[in-house]
């Protein structure tokens, strides 16, 4: 029995264990891959703006992107769609909810002025793409066009304020070119294998418990790929930088919509069931609207309080309960 057959046999026999291992390996390899990519590019003289827009900005969504590619290529586009929408729901309900319970979260000025309007635009663009109950090639191109606009705006801002980008690049670990290239290959290899294991395990869990692939993507896969955001936001809050938490989540949500959701649209176009728009996108829209109210409503404190964090967390728990009750 070859290595591939052995992996498939383990997944079929122990799908939940394979799912856990897949999540751990995905998170570990994504971090190494992003750091090695940025370090190698820096050593090879690539523009700081290019590094910032790819290895740092888009690279933070590597787990969701790889899961989206693998599931779409395996004709499991429902997992990819569920992962994109479910990750946003988990980020706002679970991640911000838990983090706000640890420490109230203020909205940074940059998040209010720049990232929140982008999130509103990306969320409305998703509504346009899903409104005909079909996610296809044109929708994927529209989402990528939206991503292109944001990357252009980020590039223009980085030219105007290079000190902020320098600070981000200074946080990267120092590596020689050879070491960074080795870790790039290792990180990419483990990233590809773990994404394959994760998708196959998710499909196996769905079949074993008679749950739809969409629900698995909306819950288990979405939460698993959102765990890095949870650890980063909680750590930022505990270390006295709570203003970073909301910006991390908002940035991740924008990429989940414009980059991750574009993948099944381009690689595995398919009809969208009615409840995906009204139940799942509706929940994502509702949480986004609540976040907007907390940020911009007249008289608001521009802070997610512990009580509001509890409301966000309760909303996510209630939504998850409804999903499995209907499954």
Using brief descriptors, characterize the structure shown.
327 residues; two-stranded antiparallel ribbon; globular; mainly alpha; 14 helices
Q: Over all CA atoms, what is the radius of gyration?
A: 19 Å
Order of helices and strands: HHHHHEHEHHHHHHEHEH
Mean pLDDT: 85
In DSSP terms, counting alpha (H) and pi (I) runs of 4 or more, how many helices?
14
Structural summary, described in words:
This protein is mainly alpha-helical. It has helices at 3-13, 15-43, 48-57, 62-73, 77-102, 109-130, 137-160, 162-170, 177-208, 213-238, 243-260, 262-267, 274-296, 306-326, and strands at 105-106, 134-135, 270-271, 303-304. The strands form two sheets. It has a two-stranded antiparallel sheet with strand order 1-4. A two-stranded antiparallel ribbon has the order 2-3. The two termini are 36 Å apart. The model has no long low-confidence stretch (mean pLDDT 85).
């Amino acid at each position: 029995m070859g290595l591939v057959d052995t992996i498939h046999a383990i997944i079929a026999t122990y799908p939940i264990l394979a799912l856990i291992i897949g999540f751990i390996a995905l998170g570990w390899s994504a971090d190494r891959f992003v750091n090695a990519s940025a370090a190698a590019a820096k050593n090879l003289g690539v523009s700081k703006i290019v590094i910032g827009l790819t290895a740092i900005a888009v690279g933070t969504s590597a787990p969701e992107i790889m899961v989206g590619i693998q599931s779409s290529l395996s004709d499991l586009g429902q997992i990819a769609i569920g992962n994109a929408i479910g990750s946003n729901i988990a980020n706002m309900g679970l991640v911000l909810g838990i983090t706000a319970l640890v420490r109230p979260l203020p909205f940074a000025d940059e998040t209010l002025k720049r990232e929140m309007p982008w999130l509103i635009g990306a969320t409305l663009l998703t509504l346009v793409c899903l409104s005909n109950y079909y996610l296809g090639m044109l929708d994927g191109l529209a989402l990528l066009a939206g991503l292109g606009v944001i990357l252009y705006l980020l590039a223009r801002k980085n030219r105007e304020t290079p000190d902020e980008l320098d600070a981000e690049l200074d946080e990267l670990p120092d590596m020689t070119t050879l070491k960074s290239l080795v870790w790039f290959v290792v990180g990419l290899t483990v990233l590809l294998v773990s994404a394959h294991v994760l998708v196959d395990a998710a499909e196996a869990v769905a079949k074993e418990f008679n749950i739809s692939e969409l629900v698995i993507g909306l819950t288990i896969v979405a939460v698993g790929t959102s765990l890095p955001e949870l650890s980063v936001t909680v750590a930022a809050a505990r270390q006295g930088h709570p203003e970073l938490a909301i910006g991390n989540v908002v940035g991740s949500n924008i990429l989940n919509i414009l980059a991750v959701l574009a993948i099944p649209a381009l690689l595995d176009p398919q009809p969208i069931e009615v409840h995906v728009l009204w139940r799942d996108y509706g929940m994502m829209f509702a949480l986004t609207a609540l976040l907007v109210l907390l940020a911009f409503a007249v008289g608001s404190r521009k802070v997610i309080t512990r009580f509001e964090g509890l409301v966000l967390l309760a909303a996510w728990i209630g939504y998850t309960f409804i999903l499995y009750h209907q499954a």
